[in-house]
UniProtKB/TrEMBL annotation, chains A, B:
<dbReference type="InterPro" id="IPR013149">
    <property type="entry name" value="ADH-like_C"/>
</dbReference>
<dbReference type="Pfam" id="PF08240">
    <property type="entry name" value="ADH_N"/>
</dbReference>
<dbReference type="InterPro" id="IPR036291">
    <property type="entry name" value="NAD(P)-bd_dom_sf"/>
</dbReference>
<dbReference type="GO" id="GO:0008270">
    <property type="term" value="F:zinc ion binding"/>
</dbReference>
<keyword id="KW-0560">Oxidoreductase</keyword>
<dbReference type="InterPro" id="IPR013154">
    <property type="entry name" value="ADH-like_N"/>
</dbReference>
<dbReference type="InterPro" id="IPR002328">
    <property type="entry name" value="ADH_Zn_CS"/>
</dbReference>
<protein>
    <submittedName>
        <fullName>Threonine dehydrogenase-like Zn-dependent dehydrogenase</fullName>
    </submittedName>
</protein>
<feature type="domain" description="Enoyl reductase (ER)">
    <location>
        <begin position="7"/>
        <end position="356"/>
    </location>
</feature>
<dbReference type="Pfam" id="PF00107">
    <property type="entry name" value="ADH_zinc_N"/>
</dbReference>
<dbReference type="GO" id="GO:0016491">
    <property type="term" value="F:oxidoreductase activity"/>
</dbReference>
<keyword id="KW-0862">Zinc</keyword>
<dbReference type="InterPro" id="IPR011032">
    <property type="entry name" value="GroES-like_sf"/>
</dbReference>
<comment type="similarity">
    <text>Belongs to the zinc-containing alcohol dehydrogenase family.</text>
</comment>
<keyword id="KW-0479">Metal-binding</keyword>
<dbReference type="InterPro" id="IPR020843">
    <property type="entry name" value="ER"/>
</dbReference>
Amino acid sequence: MRATIIHAPGDIRVEDRPEPRLIHGSDAIVRVAASCVCGSDLWPYRADQGPEEPKPIGHEFIGTVTAVGDDVRELQVGDFVISPWANSCGQCPDCRNGVQVACQHRAAWGGRDESGHDVEGGQSEVVRVPNAEGTLFVVPELSPQRGGTRTADEELLKSLLTLTDVMGTGYHAAKVAGVGPGQSVVVVGDGAVGLSAVLSAKLLGAERIIAMSRHEDRAAIAREFGASDVVAERGKAGAEQVRELLGGVLADCVLECVGTKESMDQALRSTRAGGHLGYVGVPAGGPELPLGVLFSKNITVAGGAASTRNYIAELLPAVLSGDLNPGRVFDSVMPLENAPEAYRAMDERRATKVMLLP
Amino acid sequence: MRATIIHAPGDIRVEDRPEPRLIHGSDAIVRVAASCVCGSDLWPYRADQGPEEPKPIGHEFIGTVTAVGDDVRELQVGDFVISPWANSCGQCPDCRNGVQVACQHRAAWGGRDESGHDVEGGQSEVVRVPNAEGTLFVVPELSPQRGGTRTADEELLKSLLTLTDVMGTGYHAAKVAGVGPGQSVVVVGDGAVGLSAVLSAKLLGAERIIAMSRHEDRAAIAREFGASDVVAERGKAGAEQVRELLGGVLADCVLECVGTKESMDQALRSTRAGGHLGYVGVPAGGPELPLGVLFSKNITVAGGAASTRNYIAELLPAVLSGDLNPGRVFDSVMPLENAPEAYRAMDERRATKVMLLP
């Protein structure tokens, strides 16, 4: 089977790999219907140093179950599944507590499972999924043996694919920041996660949504997703613009969707006293949080890596009905074979997010 | 009138000062019934450098209104009042949002009001209270002209006095950490605020309350306040003790009530993935929060300076009925004239908290 491998920074190749087989009783094999490149995949791509050895890459994929291990009870061959970016057992105290990202038996896509066996990356034709029942979320409507009669077109694939990561991550930011009716929201970051956060804020009933964006094409999607205002200024000027738009106060909820020192600073500057900052940007060597500012302003900071599996049940019906179209964050679709070009396009900001079709 | 003045680190004196008079229409004059020394008063007392000039000190007091300005409508002469540590106007957007500590017109006890006039410290016989109606909370039961028939004995004075700061601050930690029925709570810090946090966690229905204490006298009060367990270990060993007590998981809610690098580290180590850390320890040049740890563990950090006025209405009835006795944190009562000894006793940890009676 074909799989995307990172050899070194900037060096992505699609290569032949042995087709994965069941190893553990709790495994499933999934034939990938669509995968994609995540903003965080660009980190090793842009890193100073490459992986010690060539490594499969990708952690966002959807597809069909083609085999299940002996211990698998609920999943069936033929199930169409969404595979959240965080593999999780579903049984340990952290999973039962709803924090699958802290799963004590978590396997790493493109890395190893708990027992040390290799696990494929998501940007592949076929993936072995450890902890299959704790991880995979079945979409019965797309699973014929469960009576499903639909097939997913490209637009639906895109939106389903966002539920593995970016849409669930943006939704996490909004949920932990307590976004709700009547509230003012600032979203820092206009990548796929930031745009998903805008859509999530709208879905949760926010009254005013300010997207901080400097890219007209992304700002246009933000507006389509529900942003009432777009602010291009940054730093103190950006925060003052927010204050002016909100009639003299800063935002009730700020969603940080980047992960840099600058974006967190922007988020803190934009949050009113007593406000909530939901952050999901993976901290990129960023600053530690300035406790003095948080203390005097009583800013609540919540978020982190999103257990996106939690949100699939909540978001899926609207995706299936077409009321919710988070797949709009994909502005490019390529065959899996073009993965190297997908990385280049995202790295050079020619694309916001690329879907790969095997 | 007599007032406590800090001249330099370690140099506290009780001196004659002019009796304060009304300056603004929104002022009230309060004759102090009781005041006390806060843990945070020990900072300038222990500092390397003293204030530029001798400065009144103290921010926790209760007493009786003896005069009100022309713009005061609700407060009356004769009202027995609780004066929260944070002076606040009650009208600005931050006050209306429930964050009085961020009040845009806040006056500083022992400092200046918005118009630059001196304000007495709370460890005085008489205090001018700017923003009187936004700040003072009336206790009708102790106000004869409102039909109040009670007088406060020393035990009641103690408990009422905690509502100005320490009890409200401990309660803030517990509330923002989402303490509720069935939850496990760790309290870091066994000073007056930490003990109040234990009492608050009990009041909010926590199932298990672990107090981290190494002082047997304070641990005894913690147990009396509702602590189910006391842990003396610190650092990794302390967190492992918590995990063992809780059957293999860390705490749902951790209340940080100290403000040092070590206490925050202890709090983070003790919080389970997806847990809540409520902090009220004033950051003492402490560390910034390590975002990487928060991110991977999805720890929510909330708290900061407590707007204790918010909690008085909720806590007062139980204090008046005698069901709630936060005043137990006072282990010493002295006349105001002995303020220098009160500071020494707290500095040398011979006392947890000292009430001063004018």
